[in-house]
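User: My instructor asked us to take a sequence, write out its structure as tokens, and then describe one feature of it. I'm not sure where to start. Here is the sequence I was given:
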Amino acid sequence: MKLDMIVNQPVVETERLTLRPLRRSDEGLIEMYAGTEEVARMTTSIPHPLPPLSTEAFILRAQAEDRVEDVWAMDGSKADGAEVMGLISLERLDRDQSEIGYWVAPAFWNTGLASEAVKALVEANPLNSKTMFAAVFQDNPASARVLTNCGFQYLGDAESFSVARDAAVPTWTYTRKLD
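Assistant: Let's start with the prediction itself. The structure tokens for your sequence are:
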């Protein structure tokens, strides 16, 4: 028997989605979607191929009391969608700041799902952040459009290491003031 941890993290509702804490039962869908090369290559931290047990370890970290990042499943079941259509997270930074990150499963690309989830999380502002940051790889203009559509302003160019690519990749950095 597997038991889910009860995580002290708010649930955020949108028209199509419930942004909810991760559950152990999410492991299969997360592994299936995050294990694709096209998803992993657009993130800094997902390796490709996924090592055994890495998704289970990720969920346990997301459920830990001392976590530095809250992770929500984009659950579309209330609109007859999949229980996991992607993930969205907020990492705690110092000085009342946070960094938002997200990925959407390829089957749900170009559906407005990412924009809906980002907008909802920004509006809910569950960490009471004064500023949110985000960075996207420069070869992912769709994610950049999500951010600008949600009120983020371009801050500058940088680069981040991508585990899946095993390389530093140019990024665009964005910010959004919340107070």
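For the description part of your assignment, you could build on this observation: Residues 113-124 form the longest helix (12 residues). Try explaining in your own words what that tells you about the chain.
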